[in-house]
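Section 3.1: Structural characterization of target chains.
Under the original work plan, the team committed to producing a structural model for every single-chain target entering the pipeline before any wet-lab resources were allocated. The record below documents one such target. The sequence was received from the expression subgroup and is listed exactly as submitted; it comprises 280 residues.
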Amino acid sequence: MSDMQTAYKVAAAAVRQRFAEQHPENLNILNQIKKDDIAVYSGHFDKVEEVIKCLQVPYKMNPNAQKIKAEIIFVNCSGSYDHQLITDLSKQVENGKYLVSSDWALGNFIAKAFPNTVKANSKSTKDEVISVEANLNSLWSEIVVLGADPQWWLEASSHPIEILSPDKVRIEAASHDLLRSYNAPVVAVSFDWGKGHVFHVISHFWCKRTRVLTPRHKARCTDFLEAGMKLSQEGIEKVLRDSDIKANALNFAQIQSAATATELIAQLCVKAVGKLALSC
């Protein structure tokens, strides 16, 4: 198991512990999710199903898009998508489903399924780590906090997001680094479509690596569990025990990257399956 795979395992345990301590109603919803509630569609580059698996939440892989019962649909980053899949999932969202996508889905899926909302701009990113500032009312606002030096890893050739309808599209998170380098500050967006909702993020949910940008990012993973996730000391000890690792097995940056993605996935599932309104 790689360090990042271990980081996602620990992150999932930490998110569950954070819910238990701070939002027990969310943990109750997460524990009640059934396989039919979540649909995941394969992509060439991202594997959001691995994050969901770490959370110990059931899901269906590539179900018939015309007959899905799922409340939330995940579309992995890919170089192309079947035209019929785009049409079918667009209709599902219009009828009330939540759809979540990553990176190249922006131009290859989202722009086609939901025209005049967002598109990929003409640039591509480098393989780099960027700072992140979450909207105060976003799904990330409780964990992507400035005091914890938040960061998000970009794959080489990630597609920056351009908003076409500012009155309809909400910025969930942004980055000064993205603004400076690509004149496209948006990290994540959400918008309503018909009776449903769409959430898109640049880069991938399942990160293969991260980078240590500052001395703080070299610190032990437990520093992030305390500062970023605000877990109790007993909660931190439980996460380490349940994950069967020592505090120095991972650094701050590794658990931060994994936990940021894992928290977002968990929050999206809870909002959709729990029939709670997305903050958008």
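Residues 73 and 116 are 21 Å apart (CA to CA).
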